[in-house]
Amino acid sequence: MSQEWLARAVVAASPEALVVCDANGTIRLWNNGAQRVFGYSPSEAIGHNLDIIIPAKLRKRHWDGYHQTMATGQTRYGDQLLSVPATHRDGHRLSIEFSVALLRNDDGRIVGISAIMREVTGRRNEERALRGRLAELEARLADPEGATH
After folding, report:
1. CA dist., res. 40 & res. 94, Å (int)
2. Which among 101, 108, 106, 88 is positioned nearest to 20, based on CA atoms?
3. CB 37 within 8 A of CB 18
4. Helix, strand or coil for residue 53?
5. CA 97 → CA 37, 103, 119, 124, 129, distances in Å?
6. pLDDT value of residue 147
7. What is the mean pLDDT of the segment spanning 23-38?
8. Cβ contact 81:98 at 8 Å
């Protein structure tokens, strides 16, 4: 088994969405996990930019940050796990968590960025419901008279 074969096998078999974009933001790698999460096949996604999954209202902010990162070689997120909304091919909203890695050539120049993404919509919805229920219970405890009426 060569390292190249192993790398291809890991990318292909990963249930997480693995996406690589070049310095201009064009998708260059889109695995089967990305297809499962976002609904676009690799042939539909590769060659396009991330607008296919970024909600319209967040695109300017995303691209401002993306281009700054490509120009400076710095990302303020480092190794943090980020949580953002995304859009599925059919238009429904997703909640995703992801981490990024800057990709550099042999000269150290940034040539792209990779992201490993996981859809967490179900968990986010459960957390939101629990926070709502907790707020309701706390309000009842704070006003015992209101709770009995």
Report:
1. 14
2. 101
3. no
4. coil
5. 12, 20, 7, 10, 19
6. 55
7. 96
8. yes
* CA pseudo-torsion sign 139, 141, 144, 149: positive
Q: Positive or negative, the Cα torsion across 101, 102, 106, 108?
A: negative
Q: What is the mean pLDDT of the chain?
A: 89
Provide the 10 A C-beta neighbour count for residue 35: 17
pTM across the whole model: 0.79
Q: Which fold has domain 3-121?
A: Beta-Lactamase (3.30.450)
Best CA proximity match to 117, nearest among 99, 101, 93, 90: 99
Question: What single letter denotes the amino acid at residue 116?
Answer: I
**CB 9 within 8 Å of CB 26:** no
Determine what percent of the chain falls in helix, strand and coil, rounding each to the nearest 5: 45, 25, 30
